[in-house]
Specification:
The protein is 32% helix and 28% strand. By secondary structure, the chain is an alpha/beta fold.
Length: 339
């Protein structure tokens, strides 16, 4: 088993964080990681989706995303902490997995566009056979394991009314759209105090006005719904489609995932954490990740793991403790070698 020196792993991490890779522009980071694998005698290629593939023992796959959200944070190391966009989400987990994949001799994939379309993960599950185990990379903290994520349903609501004088009492399309959204929120209000178990509706864009011919009024709401494992996409769709008036066009649907904490991957990660005298914790995340994509396609044990505080995701204060990064490599190497 190879052992990458901690200082070399930290140097790679700094290089990766210093290389911009806003979603859709991951090529430079893919090539930097490709050079790292090439240096250690590993076959690599960049596939049609922009994913970096480094196959080895194909029964175990370590995978994380190469892209970040926009926002420049000057890269610097101060008091053992690395600052920079993506240091937590998810270049810390990504780099830790690359190093652990070399150490343990297992397969690695750096995927593209997780922050936007999950195009890389969607391509991956179509392009290769199912592995026997998956560790997905996202920040959980070095001594915690993420077992569940809510799903995602997104769509566009639209409604149209005839143009009338603004003095008329009848609601126009914009008013009807606002009323529809009020009913949507009411449909899911007060279901439970647990955020993870709630359906969370969120409008992300609203548009409206008179049609070009001047005869109608139109309004649109683009919305996203986070879905707990207890409900699933079909049930939430059914509830929303029963709310009148207007039309709904669905644009994406990703099922929630809740893995068993006693599966082989979670057990292996716990062994790695305990090997460093940690006390493993299990997490459930209110967002959605590429693990949802993998769980829909591959019926194999999986979990999500990686260094970093996820409350710093996408923030101007994104930074990663380098001791935590070092520990996560040891945990991943131990886990990958023992699954």
């Amino acid at each position: 088993m190879t052992e990458i020196a901690p200082e070399d792993a930290r140097s790679l991490l700094k290089d990766v964080v210093e290389t911009p890779s806003v979603s859709g522009s991951e090529t430079a980071v893919a090539k930097r990681l490709q050079a790292f694998f090439d240096q250690h005698g590993r076959e690599t290629w960049i596939d049609e989706a922009g994913n970096l593939r480094a196959p080895a023992d194909e029964s175990v796959v370590l995978t994380s995303h190469m892209d970040t959200v926009p926002g420049e944070i000057p890269v610097r190391v101060e008091d053992g902490v690395l600052w920079g966009r993506g240091s937590v989400d998810a270049k810390g987990p990504l780099t830790a997995m690359a190093v652990a994949a070399v150490n343990a001799g297992v397969s690695f994939v750096g995927v593209a566009e997780e922050e936007t379309t999950s195009a890389g993960a969607r391509y991956l599950v179509e392009d290769r056979e199912s592995p026997e185990a998956v560790i997905n990379g996202e920040p959980s903290g070095w001594d915690a394991i993420t077992m569940g994520y809510r799903g995602l349903l997104s769509g566009e609501f639209s409604v149209q009314t005839e143009v009338g004088h603004t003095s008329r009492p009848e609601p126009n399309a914009i008013q009807q759209a606002i009323s529809w959204w009020d009913r949507v929120e009411a449909a899911f209000d007060g279901e439970t105090d647990s955020i993870f178990e709630q359906v969370t509706p969120k409008p992300v864009e609203m548009r409206g006005g008179t049609t070009p011919d001047g005869f109608d009024f139109e309004a649109w709401i683009d919305a996203q719904f986070r879905i707990p494992p207890a409900k699933g996409v079909a049930e939430v769709k059914s509830t929303l489609e029963a709310i009148e008036p207007g039309d709904l066009e669905w644009t994406d649907a990703i099922e929630p995932v809740m893995e068993r904490p006693r599966n082989d991957v979670a057990s292996a990660l716990r062994r790695g954490i305990r090997h460093l005298d940690g006390d493993p914790a299990h997490l459930r995340k209110t967002g959605t990740s590429d693990m949802n994509i993998y769980a829909q396609a591959w019926n194999v044990p999986m979990a999500t793991y990686g260094p970093g505080d996820s409350s710093l995701d996408h923030t101007p204060d994104e930074h990663l403790d380098l001791v935590e990064f070092d520990r996560s490599i040891e945990v991943l190497t131990t886990a990958a070698a023992s699954i």
